[in-house]
């Protein structure tokens, strides 16, 4: 077996049948950190070929759709936050959208009770995919032809790549769902179980990518691919039609910006809740000396949790798609409001979340974040998702890609928790054409107007908290990027009123928090952060999370 086409022939050092991970590395010029070694290497190679950070990000996004099918996607959506070296900020929203036939109570039965899994499994769970349109919008900032940026993904799909142990496990554990929720067999299900080292070839996906390469976004949103999506809808009651696809367009959002201890932080605006939550929480803790409190001590965790509780309560009430709901962004992140929210905070005393409503938190969480910095200092952060691991488990027959279950990010009924235990109301109710509230938090940091950091993570509602804790690690506790990324995490989201601790969280702190009255839940792991930091010597220090196959590359 050999790679016959252009990209891999020109880059013999990138071998899809034999590759290794690099978890942390400093590069002289440019770097990528992503969920997969092949995607990161492809991004780096694109920059060496003369592309900028946008070219690399587009190539990484398409590559992840092939090598990281649980979250990389063309059937999902996401957000790109970028800062050009001239200081221009770009907030590109390619979030999925509710189809024209969607309605507020579409996931409720006649009695008004939510159906068990209609918002999470099968085609009805899918919002209109935004990723392909998003990449074509992002291309306005790139330098190389789009065809060149899609090519590596096509070759990976057509000739295959070797799967890791975790990918094999993911495919095996979803086998029955793929079969149940798809109208025909796909590349993801074979007779035997997958094992590490097997080659995954995705012929149908390669053909879809070729249609996109040849016809642009219309290669996805119109013609044969669109027809295949609509046909797949019929199998499990989906409602996306040809017009929904044809009319989908990404939107630009003005990023959220704020200062924290000498750092300028830039993050994503609604329909993501991420930027507002991050700004609220960091402003709430800014008056405190976190370094003195110490890393992961009961004092610091309790303070940071009390900020989380207050911010996430606002999420449920006030945040949704700003084109459908007036999100009071300015007020929510104003110094006066934030100060007033913390006015009842007493150090060492547990607060309360008045409504007690134990939401079930779903453990599997697959979204993916990647970070790119090029030689000129352009920074690109993309978080993209199918929502759940392998989305709604439906593979579009003939087209070879998985559809998202992003509709579950809407509030399907006031007070009813979604997959992440998040509740909401009118602000995030379903409406045709509306984008569901997200927690994705692609984030950039500058210092003295110079690029400093790009970071983000998957993890559903834990995402804003991960970025918040990561930034405190780096800014207050002076940790390295890698230390910060790998450190144990905690999470509070107002409701349910408990603190989730990652399994390796310090036991002594857990006991001290319990003594303060907190309810503690232990959880395997949170998310997978990938970041690139520009160090004082001008180099790019890239770091990938220990929690997954994340890997860095650069030159
Ligand atoms: O947009 C959101 O907030 C969710 N759909 C993200 C899902 C996610 O992070 C799953 N993964 N880890």
Characteristics of this structure?
Glutamine Phosphoribosylpyrophosphate, subunit 1, domain 1, globular, alpha+beta, 555 residues, 19 helices, single chain, 2 domains, seven-stranded antiparallel sheet, binds 6-diazenyl-5-OXO-L-norleucine
Provide an overview of this structure:
- The chain is an alpha+beta fold.
- It has two domains: 6-18 and 41-251 and 388-425, no CATH class; 256-366 and 439-554, Glutamine Phosphoribosylpyrophosphate, subunit 1, domain 1 (4-Layer Sandwich).
- Helices cover 33% and strands 15% of the residues.
- The protein has 19 helices and 19 strands.
- It has helices at residues 6-10, 37-48, 53-67, 131-138, 146-159, 165-173, 175-181, 203-215, 218-221, 223-235, 242-247, 274-285, 290-293, 298-318, 329-332, 335-341, 463-475, 481-486, 507-515, and strands spanning 24-27, 31-34, 77-83, 89-94, 161-162, 199-200, 251-252, 256-260, 263-267, 367-373, 379-385, 443-447, 450-455, 490-491, 499-502, 520-523, 530-534, 540-544, 551-554.
- The chain has a seven-stranded antiparallel beta sheet with strand order 1-18-17-13-12-9-8. The protein has a seven-stranded antiparallel beta sheet with strand order 7-4-3-11-10-2-19, covered by helices on one side. It has a three-stranded mixed beta sheet with strand order 14-15-16.
- A hairpin with a 5-residue loop joins strand 17 (530-534) and strand 18 (540-544).
- Helix 2 (37-48) packs antiparallel against helix 3, helix 5 (146-159) packs antiparallel against helix 8 (203-215) and helix 12 (274-285) crosses helix 17.
- The protein is globular, with a radius of gyration of 22 Å.
- The chain binds 6-diazenyl-5-OXO-L-norleucine.
- Residues 365-367, 385, 387, 406, 409, 438-440, 458-460, 463 line the site of 6-diazenyl-5-OXO-L-norleucine.
């Amino acid at each position: 077996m050999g790679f016959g086409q252009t990209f891999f022939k020109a880059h013999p050092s990138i071998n899809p049948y034999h590759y290794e991970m690099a978890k942390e590395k400093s590069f002289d010029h440019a770097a990528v950190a992503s969920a997969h070694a092949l995607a990161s290497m492809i991004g780096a190679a694109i920059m060496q070929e003369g592309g900028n950070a946008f070219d690399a990000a587009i190539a990484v996004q398409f590559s992840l759709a092939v090598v990281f099918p649980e979250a990389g996607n063309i059937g999902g959506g996401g957000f790109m936050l970028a800062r050009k070296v001239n200081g221009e900020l770009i907030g590109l929203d390619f979030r999925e959208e509710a189809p024209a036939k969607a309605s507020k109570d579409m996931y409720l039965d006649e009695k008004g009770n939510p159906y068990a899994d209609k918002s999470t499994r099968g085609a009805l769970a899918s919002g209109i995919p935004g990723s392909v349109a998003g990449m074509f919008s992002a291309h306005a900032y790139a330098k190389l032809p789009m065809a060149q940026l899609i090519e590596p993904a096509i070759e990976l799909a057509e000739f295959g790549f070797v799967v890791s142990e975790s990918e094999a496990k993911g495919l095996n554990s979803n086998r029955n769902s793929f079969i149940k929720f798809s109208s025909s067999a796909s590349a993801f299900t074979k007779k035997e179980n997958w094992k590490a080292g097997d080659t995954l070839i995705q012929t149908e996906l390669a053909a879809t990518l070729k249609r996109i390469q040849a016809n642009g976004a219309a290669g996805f949103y119109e013609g044969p691919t669109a027809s295949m999506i609509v046909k797949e809808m019929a199998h499990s009651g989906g409602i996306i039609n040809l017009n929904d696809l044809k009319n989908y367009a990404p939107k630009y959002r003005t990023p959220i910006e704020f200062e924290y201890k000498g750092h300028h932080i830039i993050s994503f605006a609604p329909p993501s809740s991420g930027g507002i939550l991050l700004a609220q929480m960091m402003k709430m803790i800014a008056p405190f000396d976190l370094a003195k409190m110490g890393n992961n001590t009961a004092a610091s965790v309790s303070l940071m949790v009390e900020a989380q509780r207050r911010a996430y309560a606002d999420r449920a009430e006030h945040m949704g798609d700003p084109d459908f709901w007036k999100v009071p962004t300015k007020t929510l992140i104003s110094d006066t409001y934030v100060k007033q929210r913390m006015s009842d905070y007493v150090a060492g005393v547990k607060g309360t979340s008045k409504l007690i409503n134990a939401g079930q938190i779903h453990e599997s969480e697959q979204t993916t974040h990647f970070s790119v910095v090029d030689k000129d200092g352009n920074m690109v952060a993309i978080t993209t998702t199918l929502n759940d691991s392998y989305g709604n488990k439906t593979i579009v027959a003939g087209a070879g890609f998985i559809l998202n279950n992003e509709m579950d990010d809407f509030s399907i009924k006031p007070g009813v928790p979604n997959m992440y235990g998040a509740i909401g109301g009118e602000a995030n109710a379903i409406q045709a054409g509306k984008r569901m509230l997200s927690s994705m938090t692609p984030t950039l940091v500058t210092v003295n107007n110079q690029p400093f950091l790009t970071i983000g993570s998957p993890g559903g509602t834990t995402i804003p908290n991960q970025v918040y804790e990561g930034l405190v690690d780096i800014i207050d506790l002076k940790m390295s990027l890698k230390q910060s990324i790998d450190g144990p995490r905690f999470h509070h989201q107002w409701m349910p009123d408990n603190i989730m601790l990652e399994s390796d969280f310090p036991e002594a702190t857990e006991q001290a928090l319990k003594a303060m009255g907190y309810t503690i839940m232990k959880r395997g792991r949170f998310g997978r952060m990938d970041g690139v930091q520009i160090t004082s010597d001008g180099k790019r220090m890239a770091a990938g999370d220990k929690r997954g196959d994340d890997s860095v590359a650069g030159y």
